[in-house]
Amino acid sequence: MKLMKIISWIIKGVILLLLLIVAFLNTQNVQFTYLPEQSTQLPLIVIVFGGFVVGAVFGLFAMFGRLLRLRSENNRLRNEVQKSARLTTEAISAPVAKPAVSNNKVTK
Question: 27-70, pLDDT tens digit by residue?
């Protein structure tokens, strides 16, 4: 298991290193048009990194509603399990009524 973690970190490090090399090789300025007739010159890496950040923020907002829904469901299920456990404990500790023994014999 530990070997898999080490291999995973090595692969992540290699990917990060490759992305950094690509970033440093692409420092030329490109025109970024953000509104009609409005543009600016920015390094390519700034635009790519900015796009990544904007995408990550939108992704977080998209997942936030699902997170709240799952938290609510988790709390509801946890309360249901606690209630069930409490009822089971009460049923176990409650005295059991013994059936009445009858000495009358039934004849046909």
Answer: 899 998 988 889 999 998 888 889 999 999 999 999 998 999 99
Q: Domain residues of the chain, as ranges? A: 22-91
**Cα–Cα dist 79/85, whole Å:** 10
Q: Is 45 exposed, middle or buried (0-12, 13-18, 19+ CB in 10 A)?
A: middle
Q: What is the pLDDT of residues 64-108, one digit of tens each?
A: 989 999 999 999 999 999 998 888 877 777 666 676 666 666 665
Global pTM?
Answer: 0.53
Q: What is the DSSP-derived secondary structure letter of residue 94?
A: S
CA nearest neighbour of 40 among 28, 30, 52: 30
